[in-house]
Write a structure and sequence with these properties.
Largest sheet: 6 strands, mixed
CATH superfamily of the largest domain: P-loop containing nucleotide triphosphate hydrolases
Number of helices: 10
Strand order of the largest sheet: 6-7-8-3-9-10
CATH architecture of the largest domain: 3-Layer(aba) Sandwich
Distance between the termini: 31 Å
Shape: globular
CATH topology of the largest domain: Rossmann fold
Low-confidence stretches: 243-248
Mean pLDDT: 90
Strand content: 15-25%
Helix content: 25-40%
Bound molecules: adenosine-5'-diphosphate, magnesium ion
CATH class of the largest domain: Alpha Beta
Length: 248
């Protein structure tokens, strides 16, 4: 589903992503882990066209998308969520989802569409909010949501694009245990018919959800394999995961 070769991104003076070879099999959940500053978000920005690589290639589903603009990569079935929440406080949940659906359909993002035009998205909007457990909150402004609910809404916005490849940047960051459990269930529910790559620090989430794990350090791939294998790798334990995981 996703293949990178020699992928690199240079910022002034250093390589944030350095010669990364990533292979993500269709239908899997693949975790990207590594210390802060390892280059995980930069890698996501490369994969989605938000940044142009300094070197290397990116293939999605066998198509070379290297250097393509974000909209074109999105058209290839790639959607992402962001590490930092990016919602409009005054817009309702339903309005957020309707805008995402308009974007998917190439309508551009318009706030002033007539009710009639938006009505066609009503059913799909309700479905998406239902999928992420927010059906009862459709007409609330996003600013009034609890943190975990905001992250769930962001997942709905990514799902609105019907992606085949879903990239989630720290979907459980800043969540309490209850929201983490709900998010794990949510990702399990939405994984059907798609491939998921997630950046994740919470090793319970990685262990529960993922088929394979790639560990990044200083922009390079340090280790890659099934979770059980990677977490037992002494280099990984030393580099990042630490004793808490070695003891799990
Ligand atoms: P991670 O998501 O793994 O924590 P990032 O990809 O955000 O790491 O960052 C990797 C490195 O690249 C960090 O040292 C960060 O400061 C640097 N970096 C990220 N974006 C930029 C940018 N636009 N310009 C310069 N340096 C950047
Ligand atoms: Mg990051």
């Amino acid at each position: 589903m996703l293949r990178t070769r020699g992928l690199a991104k240079e910022f002034t003076g250093f390589r944030a992503v350095d010669d990364v070879e990533l292979d993500v099999m269709p239908g899997t959940i693949h975790a990207l882990v590594g210390p802060n500053g390892a280059g995980k978000t930069t890698l996501f920005n490369l994969l989605t066209g938000f940044l142009k690589p300094s070197a290397g290639t990116i293939e999605i589903d066998g198509h070379d998308v290297t250097g393509m603009r974000p909209e074109r990569i999105a058209q290839r079935g790639v959607a992402r969520s962001f590490q930092i929440t990016s919602l409009f406080d005054e817009l309702t949940l339903a309005e957020h989802v309707e805008l995402a659906l308009q974007g998917r359909d190439g309508q551009g993002y318009r706030f002033w569409r007539s009710d009639k035009k938006l009505r066609r998205y009503r059913g799909e909007t309700a479905d998406l909010l239902e999928q992420v457990g927010l059906a009862d909150h459709a007409s609330r402004p996003a600013g009034s949501l609890a943190y975990g609910q905001k992250r769930a809404l962001e997942l709905a916005l990514a799902l609105a694009l019907s992606p085949r490849l879903l990239l989630l940047d720290e979907p459980t960051a800043g969540m309490g245990a209850e929201d983490v459990t709900r998010t794990i269930e949510l990702i399990q529910r939405v994984r059907a018919d798609r491939t998921v790559v997630l950046v994740e620090h919470n090793m319970k989430v990685v262990g529960d959800l993922t088929d394979r794990v790639t560990v990044l350090q200083f922009g390079k791939v340090l280790a890659e394999g099934p979770y059980e294998q990677v977490r037992a790798d002494p280099r990984v334990i030393t580099a990042y995961l630490g004793e808490s995981v070695a003891q799990r």
